[in-house]
Design brief:
This protein is mainly α. The chain contains 17 helices and two strands. The chain has a two-stranded antiparallel ribbon with strand order 1-2. A hairpin with a 2-residue loop joins strand 1 and strand 2. The protein starts with 20 loop residues before the first helix and ends with a helix.
């Protein structure tokens, strides 16, 4: 019995290998698939009209999503009265909390339904909700709208991820995931610039009496534009040639029109069991999710480290974020160039370790320039972890399980980020008090006086958590290799 073989009573461990139906679907003709020598170029993926449409849809909707998030935050602060901070907190929580409870169920539904229809319906529904936000006047209305938006996002995201291997060839999955990362996060500056431009345009449109019924202002105009982006995304996705799986192969309720909750929970259990059964899937979830507990602490603690340790103020933190984003971009480019010459599993684990060591050294620095360089290195490794992790899941998990696996990953990622954001500041304050009490805030290392404020100690701990995630991922992969060797050919 190998690591990918189930124990008695467990679901079978399914894997996708080169030459399977998914790869065949991705190959296509010269118009819809990148073939031959063109596959050596990461940009040749755009020869696939299917992927190009899906990617453009993601770029458009992601830009609108960031624009909408900015507008929702501004609206929450405006209608929050005397407690704008609490209002923003409630609204942001409404975008995070549903994932813990609904994401696993969303994965089951995505594996049952036609994924193209799911994405189109979700885009149309989000467009309708966003258009309605222009008429919202209370925090609770914003919270409810944010909850509804998040539910549709929880369905759209795994449906999109599960569809990617069906429209691109196996050897172009790395390039596809690199471009998806660009679409998801590289559109934020574009959305920010659009928000500024729309604010100026709104001041002019407010003077047009014919538009009074639309309640045009800075936020409402952003909501309308965001709604249009989702309509455009729905139109693009509707043209995709995604092959629907035969109905008999999809998961359905076992009692006709009545919902079989027992079957739903069995399918949910099957997806989570596969995460623990398959060594590659297990390693990716540990490396990506657990590593984020450490990496996520850089966001709430970065400003404190810049101010208290480096004396660089908030400008120093801005430098961190810029370096992090630039590093992620460099990591994506490097992976796109060398994707055909690397062993993805080894590089994934190496990127996790690289992220941990980069953060460990960055937190030890007292120079802004050195810290920025190391944070950039952290970004390079983080980009590699994300792209390679998603690529390994696409290659490893069979189509009928992908929705549940990606939903489980999103759930773990949300949980780990929330833990990092919530615990990091409190842990820094606790360690700061202990450092002052027992070490007077500094220690002597080889004749050098090293300051150990709580924020530095917490970032070191964060780095150790990332390194631990790397060790666990490596251990999972080694167990899988050992089990395969013992099972023989």
């Amino acid at each position: 019995m190998t690591a990918t073989d189930p124990e008695p009573g467990s679901p079978p461990a399914r894997r996708v290998v080169a030459g399977t139906e998914d790869a065949a679907l991705a190959g296509g003709d010269s118009g819809d698939g990148a073939g031959g020598a063109d596959r050596d170029s990461s940009l040749s993926i755009f020869r696939s009209r299917q992927f190009l449409r899906l990617w453009v849809a993601q770029v458009v909707s992601a830009t609108g999503d960031w624009l909408g998030f900015i507008a929702i935050t501004i609206t929450a602060a405006r209608v929050g009265g005397g407690t704008p901070e609490a209002a923003v907190g409630f609204v942001v929580a409404a975008r995070i909390v549903p994932g813990f409870f609904l994401a696993p169920l969303a994965g089951v539904l995505v594996d049952r339904w036609d994924r193209k229809k799911v994405m189109v319906v979700c885009d149309l529904s989000r467009a309708a909700v966003l258009a309605g936000l222009a008429f919202v006047d209370t925090v609770w209305q914003l919270v409810v709208a944010s909850l509804v938006l998040e539910v549709f996002t929880l369905l759209w995201s795994p449906a999109k991820e599960a569809s990617v291997p069906n429209i691109v060839s196996r050897d172009q999955l790395t390039a596809a995931n690199s471009l998806s990362l660009v679409a998801a996060y590289g559109t934020f500056p574009v959305a920010s610039a659009m928000a500024i431009g729309l604010a100026k345009l709104a001041t002019q449109l407010e003077k047009v009496s014919a538009l009074d019924a639309l309640r045009i202002d800075q936020e409402s105009l952003a909501f309308y534009v965001d709604s249009i982006t989702f309509l455009a995304s729905a139109a693009l996705i509707a043209t995709l040639g995604l092959a629907s799986r035969p109905k008999e192969e999809r998961r359905r309720t076992s009692s006709g029109r009545r919902i079989d909750f027992g079957q739903t929970f069995r399918e949910l259990k099957e997806g989570w069991e596969f995460i623990f059964i398959d060594p590659v899937v297990r390693a990716v979830n540990v490396g990506l999710a657990t590593g984020l507990i450490g990496g996520g602490m850089l966001v709430p603690l970065g400003p404190v480290f810049s101010i208290e340790v480096l004396g660089a103020g908030l400008a120093g933190f801005s430098s961190f974020i810029t370096a992090l984003g630039f590093g992620v971009a460099v990591g994506i480019v490097l992976l796109s160039v060398f994707q055909g010459r690397i062993r993805k599993v080894s590089w994934f684990v190496g990127a996790v370790f690289g992220a941990g060591f980069s953060l460990l050294l960055a937190a030890a620095m007292s120079s802004l320039a050195a810290t920025v360089v190391l944070v950039g290195a952290l970004g390079i490794c983080a980009g590699g972890v994300y792209v390679l992790g998603f690529t390994l899941l696409h290659e490893t998990v069979e189509d009928e399980l992908r929705g549940r696996i990606f939903s489980a990953l999103y759930t773990l990622v949300r949980l780990c980020i929330l833990i990092a954001f919530a615990i990091g500041p409190f842990l820094a304050a606790l360690l700061d008090g202990l450092s002052d009490r027992y070490f007077d805030g500094d220690i002597d290392v080889l004749g050098l006086d090293v300051a150990i404020p709580g924020v530095r100690l917490t970032l070191w701990l964060a780095a150790l958590i990332i390194l631990l995630a790397g060790v666990l991922a490596l251990y999972s992969l080694r167990l899988g290799e050992r089990a395969s060797e013992e099972a023989g050919p």
